[in-house]
């Protein structure tokens, strides 16, 4: 995993050893969100070790993103996307 998120920077101090699962957590875009057309709400969920965890529904996209980020901190800790 690249600490500064630059895949071209392979310096030893920019790398840390992680397993495949921990590396898959490190994503740059917001995952686990979708727009529910029928309810007109953002739905948020997170998958942890193949288990889908429902976070909630939100009117505002920003609130949905914030809820997703909080869930990433809770479930993924230091291996979440920064």
Fold blueprint:
Layout: H1 20-25, E1 33-36, E2 41-48, E3 51-58, H2 61-76
Antiparallel strand pairs: 1-2, 2-3
Verbal overview:
- It contains 2 helices and 3 strands, in the order H-E-E-E-H.
- Strand 1 (33-36) and strand 2 (41-48) form a beta hairpin.
- It has a domain at 28-79: GCC-box Binding Domain (2-Layer Sandwich).
- The two termini are 12 Å apart.
- The mean pLDDT is 82.
- The chain has 82 residues and is an alpha+beta fold.
Summarize this entry quickly.
The protein is an alpha+beta fold and 82 residues long.
Tell me which CATH architecture of the domain at 28-79 applies here.
Answer: 2-Layer Sandwich
Task: For the record, give the distance between the C-alpha atoms at the N and C termini, rounded to a whole number.
Answer: 12 Å
Counting DSSP H or I runs of 4 or more residues, the number of helices is: 2
Mean pLDDT, nearest integer?
82
The main pleated sheet reads as: 3 strands, antiparallel
Shape: elongated
State the order of secondary-structure elements, H for helix, E for strand.
HEEEH
Supply database-style keywords.
2 helices, elongated, 27% helix, alpha+beta, single chain, 82 residues, 24% strand, 3-stranded antiparallel beta sheet, GCC-box Binding Domain
């Amino acid at each position: 995993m690249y600490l500064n998120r630059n895949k071209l920077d392979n310096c030893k101090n920019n790398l840390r050893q992680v397993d495949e699962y921990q590396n898959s957590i490190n994503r740059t875009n917001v995952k686990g969100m979708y727009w529910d057309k029928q309810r007109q709400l953002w739905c948020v969920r997170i998958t942890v070790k193949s288990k889908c965890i429902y976070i909630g529904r939100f009117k505002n996209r920003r609130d949905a993103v914030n809820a997703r980020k909080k869930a990433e901190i809770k479930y993924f800790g230091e291996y979440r996307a920064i």
